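Sorry to interrupt, but I need a hand with the structure work. Go ahead and set the record down below:
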Amino acid sequence: PSPLCTCLVQDANTTGEREHLNYSVRKGRGGPAHLCLHPSGVALMNGSGPHDSLKGEKDAKQNGHEEAEPGEDGNDQEVIVIQDTGFTVKICAPGIEPFSLQVSPQEMVQEIHQVLMDREDTCHRTCFSLQLDGNVLDNFAELKTIEGLQEGSLLKVVEEPYTVREARIHVRHIRDLLKSLDPSDAFNGVDCNSLSFLSVFTEGDLGGMRQKHFLERNHCPPLQCLKVLTMSGWNPPPGNRKMHGDLMYLYVITVEDRHVSITASTRGFYLNQSTAYNFNPKPANPSFLSHSLVELLNQISPTFKKNFSALQKKRVQRHPFERIATPFQVYSWTAPQAEHAMDCVRAEDAYTSRLGYEEHIPGQTRDWNEELQTTRELPRKNLPERLLRERAIFKVHSDFTAAATRGAMAVIDGNVMAINPSEETKMQMFIWNNIFFSLGFDVRDHYKDFGGDVAAYVAPTNDLNGVRTYNAVDVEGLYTLGTVVVDYRGYRVTAQSIIPGILEREQEQSVIYGSIDFGKTVVSHPKYLELLEKTSRPLKIQKHKVLNDKNEEVELCSSVECKGIIGNDGRHYILDLLRTFPPDLNFLPVEGEEMPEECKKMGFPKQHRHKLCCLRQELVDAFVEHRYLLFMKLAALQLMQQKANKQESSAALENGASAENGAADGERPESEDGKLEDGVTGLDQVKELAETMASDDGAVDPKSREVIRNACKAVGSISDTSFDIRFNPDIFSPGTCAQGWEQPCSCRQKLFCSQDAAGFSLLGRGSSSGLQSWSCQGVELSGLSAAISHFLNCFLSSFPNPIAHLPADELVSKKKNKKRKNRNLGNADNTAWASMTPQELWKNICSEAKNYFDFSLECENADQAAEMYNLQKITLLREISLKTGVQILLKEYNFDNRHKPTFTEEDILNIFPVVKHVNPKASDAFHFFQSGQAKVQQGFLKEGCELINEALNLFNNVYGAMHVEICACLRLLARLNYIMGDYSEALSNQQKAVLMSERVLGIEHPNTIQEYMHLALYCFANSQLSTALNLLYRARYLMLLVFGEDHPEMALLDNNIGLVLHGVMEYDLSLRFLENALAISSKYHGSKSLKVALSHHLVARVYESKAEFRSALQHEKEGYTIYKNQLGEHHEKTKESSEYLKYLTQQAVALQRTMNEIYKNGSNANIMPLKFTAPSMASVLEQLNIINGILFIPLSQKDLENLKAEVQRRQQLQESMKSGEQLEAEDKAVEEKEAEPSMPSAAIPLTQSSA
């Protein structure tokens, strides 16, 4: 096997339930043709031993010959379709009837093992082999390579003898099965478990029958199978017992309160005669020898037998997405009060593999650096190779992130010894599990000129952004370190992989490129310049010269802090990438530098607390894109002028350029596309001309050359012949003297970034940084919950003078502690927090808001701030908890009680790490996804759907079954299914999207709320009205928690709820929601906006249903007036509103006549029956589609042609930006298919806030 074997080995002891789900979530199992490199991605992500890497390689080899080689133009649209002709085999396992299983030739034998370990009737077996005609099958063999295996073959499950390792795996697996419905691991943030509550609100799987067990699961106490299952104190077996086959001893207390000791032997499990105090390993009578621990427990405990069987029934009925592990740990900021139960696996993990070594891996610890770099060196010539490479990178990265997080917590908790223990605490560094840990403090005045400790705290996240960027460019031969930044208990810890040999030599000897002292001594290296030059164009970094302390010029192609080190492995590493992006001059006042007028008006430049402020990559990209459009426009205008009148030349261009430059430097004009439409032919000419000049072709005439030169000069390009904007990252860097400032200044210093510092984010940020520095850092562990609860009382409680409760022993031993100060981070003695008052805290928060955001909080306390900025205290509590990692008890908190504090020590349950890391990307899958989106925008829904399905397969391949990008894929697929009329498929895909969003983002993440709203729409379309309402109420509850009533999205949500209630004829309730939506829309969009007009119409419809025609008329008139003023009298919407007004007037008149008749003639009145029509489901669904941004527009053939031509024309502008990235094959496909539209009517998903 390749080096991947070492990098993909994962904890063999955690081959519990997660390992076996790999099979059950497989997409397209035994079905039609599908992309097949295949979903062992789940296994790779969650780890189930070295077979993953082998399988991936075999898949890649097997698929290689069927894959179209990429074209020379870098076309990414390579599709491998493998006809997966599945076949059926019979499985014969001991104690149950033989059953059939559908398999695929590409699968490995290991995958059948996994299925059997997940099935309800065979899940208790882990130590077995599969045999065909008496021959044992190799776990890592693909089924198609096995001789004699065919349709109808009988595979026998044969029990194998245990080893110590197999016995431990078995016990761990049984424990996983017993805990499979217990949410405690999800609340505790363990083993990549996370919460999901969708099934509570849908009462089971939306696709099939309603299943009562889901409600039972969530509202009844969990089934208890055993009181205790733990390792016995008699472990390990003595030598004489080992020779009798004893492997380990277990201690069990059954629900019936029977205490038993169990021996795990090579032959299986049996009862022995030991007690808590007497060791007697001989078999009891009867011993109940069983190969499986479950079979043994079934015989000694009737309750276990009954409850374990019921538990497994429920487990297999859950949706697979509820039980698969996530790639990265998600933490919950609230948790219920839970009893702490005995758990042998948890106890074992705490004292073995979790501290310093991982016993299941050969060689004890993993060489993280070697694994991370080896996976990047894997070949990437074709799609199978790239998929295998990306999958390996993602797998190793998620493992590294988990290990780094554990290590950082161990460092802060004082469980790791420093490599420099004699130095001051802040200066200590640590190595744990081959990972290097350093703290976010300014050691040795390294950041003295940049802001000291404040800069040192910011530097790790800037460095992480640099690592992320260089990894994305992915230049062969240039290596970055694995980097994770962890905030835990008020400390910032940077975890990095270790460069081979770095610890054996001084840093001065190691660094051969860059500077170790911020520019005083600078060195360069030709190999580094060559490698970094490949990154300079995508990263917009200009090659430049700086002066060292001897006034010598040194050439660099990165910031001066970026260091190049060649490791003992011969690889070229770059590190300290904290200034990869250009400095933000809005926060770096420099003498003699003039800021643009727009910046001055907003009070820039402002002095910031540190000098590491840099521009975000998104801003730099947007700025360059804006300049490119400007460049194209200027050149096109001049070329057209030349054509029309050859006498007019550069004068007009200069004027145009200066006017454009002054207008909106750094801001992208909104109407750019509109202005450019007429000049598309000119743009094509410019593009062609620029390409010809770039290829150094002498055929370009001098006048055309002049056009390009002038356009380049006007937009600040560093080249005279082509558009090329770059930045010098060392400009205005303290301590760095750069040569040749002038060139980039024209476009660099005018980058203009507006700030929107809302009161909410100010309070959230100010208070969380306060909690980290004042309440957590340096607090003795025994006083941590008291410190945090005191802080929260000072900040959020209305109780005027909360008093801190210091731990009793701390006051007594204060003097002793002083002698031991700085022994380690976890036990520093700091009781300053106890004297904090609400007034002092609020003063600190105001000062933080002023210093960081330059924003003045004009209020005296949190109560006033909540009123002034319309905030909820519960929302602030959530924000602080998420930012600082605090977990609080799930209960009702009364913030307004002035007689007692809101929080007690018991309300603070835990502190979790807040982890920042790089997210490796699945590039091919992403290109498929983008192409699919482009197709959809052009109206080719079916083709778009196919491409997005392919993207989904590839994402599954790289990430496994759980990932944010898979969630986006499923959401878009569901929307396309819905638009194309396949409501049930839309429901199925959206259900997966909601489950995944809950699991990987969190149960109340804003994205999850939106997913709930979409799912409710599809439920309504599938006539599941009560479920739709349940989901909408859930979404509203979450919205209230996260944002409060006063939020523009609440209007959309209330409109949805109001419409559904209207559909089920709950008119009064419907009106409450719709009128609330109307009020919010009016506040945020203005009373004359189209959204408000639609709201008026929806309210009018409900009043009509109630026969209150006067109110209906009043609202519809408001709507009509808005439509008339905004769209004109002849617009379709205005006409519709006018028609509806006429209808309402007729109804009102008819009603009045009837009432007059009754008044006049009493009971003898001749009453004409009035039409009180309940709204049809179709009309309600139509309105739901409109408010959710889905409009079905019937188009004629000619309209369709025009629309597609228009879309194509607009896309040409965007494509020219991509410089060859966009796939040319796609455009050809569009032209070919314009003659035959995909659908008779195009459904256009409008871009609204909900879309």
